[in-house]
Amino acid sequence: MPSSIYTLADTILDIQSTALSNLQLQKLTYFCYGIALAKKIKLLNVENPFEAWPLGPVNRDLYFSLRQFQDGSIPRDYIHHLSHVYNHNTYTPEERDVIAETLRKIGHLPAFKLVDLSHLPGSPWDKTFKNGAGNGDIIPDHLIQDYFSS
User: Fold this and answer.
1) Domain count of the fold of the chain
2) What is the pLDDT averaged over residues 9-35?
3) Residue 137 phi, psi (nearest 5)
4) How far is CA 25 from CA 40, 51, 130, 142, in A?
5) Rounded to an integer, what distance in angstroms lies between the CA atom of residue 117 and that of residue 9?
6) Beta bridge partners of 53
7) Each residue of 75-99: pLDDT tens digit?
8) DSSP of 91-113, one letter per residue?
9) How many CA atoms lie within 13 A of 7 on its CB side?
């Protein structure tokens, strides 16, 4: 059963060995979600879409929950609490493996390198941000799945 954005963020912070900023966590949730979709695994419920913002894909709920920390590290216990408040599910071993695999590949990258990766020409963010009204347009799951499947 798909989970909330907070469960995904909590799982990322549980697996990741380094502190993360809001911007890094935004991008890592997006990349984990995209790679999982390419494998026909839906990590998030439909109430948590990613939107095209100037710095890349953003989950609005997660952003506004974490903006108080600005560029600082997100406290692990804060996200853990939010994940329990909002539909806390645990991921299956297969789902957790997809998250861990994604983090092994890109979890070490600084925030703006992750932004650059999300801004590649032809990416779901690129298509949505440049072809839509810009800031705040929902990035459709089919674009994310198609992109990460190729």
Assistant:
1) 1
2) 93
3) -70, 140
4) 22, 15, 23, 22
5) 19
6) 56
7) 988 988 888 787 667 888 999 999 9
8) PPHHHHHHHHHHHHHHTTS-HHH
9) 21
Question: Which of 8, 90, 135 lies closest to 125, judged by CA?
Answer: 135
Neighbours of 11 (CB within 10 A): 23
* CA distance to 87, 92, 118, per residue, from 106 (Å): 27, 21, 12
φ/ψ region of 22 (left if φ > 0, alpha if ψ in -120 to 50, else beta) reads alpha
Q: Which two tokens stand for residue 90?
A: 């645990």
Query: Tens of pLDDT along 53-64?
Result: 999 999 999 999
The distance between the two most distant Cα atoms of the chain, rounded to a whole number of Å, is: 39
Model confidence pTM above 0.85: yes
- What the block records as the tokens of 54 is 């100037």
Q: Which domain holds residue 44?
A: 5-149
Residue 80: count other Cβ atoms within 10 Å of its Cβ.
17
Tokens of residue 49, six digits: 């879409």
Structure tokens that stand for 110 in this block: 């600084």
